[in-house]
Amino acid sequence: MKKFALIGIAALAVVAYAAEVLTVDKLLKDRDDHDGKDVVVTGKVADFRERESRAGNKYTTFKIQGENKIASVYVQGVLDPTPKNGDTVEVNAVFRKEKKVNDNFTVKDELDATKKTNKKYGVKITKKAASGDDK
């Protein structure tokens, strides 16, 4: 009986530890609480771009839209599979309400989903946009 109780407690601990999936609106409403923390956020892709830095490093940026708010997503490298504008995604990342890139450039409300050791960061497509919905 004790063995089953311990298994039940362990299962509850795993469920409690699982990250809550936030909407973009909820994330940005409570941005101070989430600043610098790992989050999982769901929303629609907009303004998807694959780029290359002056140093030749590939990176990906896009906006993730909620009902009323928009956050930025940054990933070093390219995504595979590649989301399209209008797709619904789940972004597992660290959130920063403000990141100073250099003296002339500051990014606000950014999710950095760059893969890291011991982190489950990344972008997962959860629903493809209907054909013609990729504006």
Write a structural description.
With 135 residues, the protein is α+β, with helices and mostly antiparallel strands. It has a single domain, classed as Nucleic acid-binding proteins (OB fold (Dihydrolipoamide Acetyltransferase, E2P), Beta Barrel), CATH 2.40.50.140. Helices cover 19% and strands 46% of the residues. β5 (88-102) and β6 (105-112) form a beta hairpin.
How would the blueprint of this fold be written?
Blueprint: H1 2-17, E1 21-23, H2 24-29, H3 31-34, E2 38-52, E3 58-65, E4 70-76, E5 88-102, E6 105-112, E7 122-127
Parallel strand pairs: 1-2, 4-6
Antiparallel strand pairs: 2-3, 2-5, 3-4, 5-6, 5-7
Number of helices: 3
Radius of gyration of CA atoms, rounded to a whole number: 17 Å
Q: Mind describing the biggest β-sheet? A: 5 strands, mixed, barrel
**CATH architecture verdict:** Beta Barrel
Number of strands: 7
User: Which residues sit in consecutive blocks of at least 5 with pLDDT less than 50?
Assistant: 8-17
Shape: globular
Q: For this structure, what is the CATH class?
A: Mainly Beta
Mean pLDDT: 87
What's the number of structural domains? 1
Helix content: 10-25%
CATH fold description: OB fold (Dihydrolipoamide Acetyltransferase, E2P)
**Pattern of helices and strands:** HEHHEEEEEE
- The CATH superfamily turns out to be Nucleic acid-binding proteins
Q: Which structural class matches the secondary elements?
A: alpha+beta
Distance between the termini: 57 Å
Can you give me a brief rundown of this structure?
The protein is of the alpha+beta class and 135 residues long. It has helices at residues 2-17, 24-29, 31-34, and strands at residues 21-23, 38-52, 58-65, 70-76, 88-102, 105-112, 122-127.
